[in-house]
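Work Package 4 report. The design task specified in the project plan requires that, given a folded chain encoded as structure tokens, an amino acid be chosen for each position. We show below one input record used in the internal validation round.
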């Protein structure tokens, strides 16, 4: 964790630090006054490299083919334009939304360009494309952080959620990346192993922590799983602290009380492969698109009527926004 913070601090500037403080202060005032006040620019952006995947995970809109948006990958020049326009204030760039990022042919070019512009970059993968060649490119592109999802310590457990997944292939890929880091004496990328807890794998938490240490991973995250389909409640873990939900009359109900505030709205936005700007990663099908970045500079989005209306509803009656009702933020 300390290393991750150090890597981020190295890319901070006075502009970025001042921008963060402006965003925090305006967010606090907005909560108090129940009025949209935003000082500063987006300090975090998510760019979706691709929304296609090789797996069919049971609660993923891409894997279940319930994603209603156009399928494909983002244009490299569009990605570069977004980065160039926001580099002065952008502290970090997230390069995943829907889909497997390493299926995108331009992913390494985007990472490299962002790092050349002093922006902390990270992405998340299912680990099936950590080939020798890709591991070399990951390090050469200077990706700052890589999250690798591994939701089982055995193939039998792993493939229950990660449909069509191959655990051995993922573990071999992790070893290849770690070995390449050691070979090049590189601290990058910071590698985080992510384990989503379900009923079928909850008994392997300790084993996963041991596996992470054996693989020389920087960080192991044991995380709660998100559900879209209440009919999948059979997968819900029995360990209370690792569940976002309570089971009520056969339906999943999120445990956390929904507050009329959302820091994500103030500090970040998500951009789809087509350039549509949406509030956050919970808007999988881009139902709440503000605008397309090809029509307006993203720095001007805060002035749009659509953005102000959306943020005002969040401050006054957030439960009326559908995507917020499954949010753990």
């Amino acid at each position: 964790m300390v290393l991750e913070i150090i890597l981020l601090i190295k890319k901070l500037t006075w502009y970025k630090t001042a921008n963060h403080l402006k965003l925090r202060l305006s967010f606090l005032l907005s909560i108090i006054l129940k009025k949209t006040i935003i000082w500063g620019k987006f300090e975090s952006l998510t760019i979706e490299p691709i929304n296609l995947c090789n797996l069919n995970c049971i609660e993923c809109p891409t894997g279940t083919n319930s994603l209603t948006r156009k399928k494909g990958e983002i244009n490299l020049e569009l990605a570069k334009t977004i980065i160039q326009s926001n580099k002065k204030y952008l502290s970090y760039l997230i390069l995943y939304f829907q889909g497997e990022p390493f299926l995108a042919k331009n992913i390494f070019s985007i990472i490299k360009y962002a790092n050349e512009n002093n922006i902390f970059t990270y992405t998340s993968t299912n680990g099936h494309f950590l080939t020798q060649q890709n591991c070399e490119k990951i390090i050469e592109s200077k990706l700052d952080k890589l999250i690798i999802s591994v939701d089982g310590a055995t193939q039998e457990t792993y493939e229950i959620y990660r449909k069509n997944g191959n655990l051995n292939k993922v573990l071999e890929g992790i070893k290849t990346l770690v070995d390449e880091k050691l070979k090049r004496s590189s601290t990058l990328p910071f590698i985080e192993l992510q384990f989503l807890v379900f009923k079928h794998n909850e008994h392997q938490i300790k084993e996963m922590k041991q596996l992470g240490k054996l693989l020389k991973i920087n960080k192991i995250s044991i995380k709660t799983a998100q559900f879209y389909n209440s009919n999948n409640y059979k997968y819900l873990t029995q360990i209370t602290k690792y569940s976002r939900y309570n089971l009520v009359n056969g339906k999943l109900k999120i445990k956390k009380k929904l507050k009329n505030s959302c820091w994500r709205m103030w500090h970040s936005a998500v951009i789809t492969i087509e350039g549509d700007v949406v509030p956050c990663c919970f808007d999988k099908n881009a139902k709440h698109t503000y605008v397309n970045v090809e029509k307006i500079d993203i720095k001007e989005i805060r002035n749009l009527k659509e953005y102000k209306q959306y943020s005002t509803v969040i401050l006054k009656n957030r439960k009326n926004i559908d995507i917020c009702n499954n949010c753990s933020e």
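The mean pLDDT is 93. Validation will be extended to a larger panel in the next phase.
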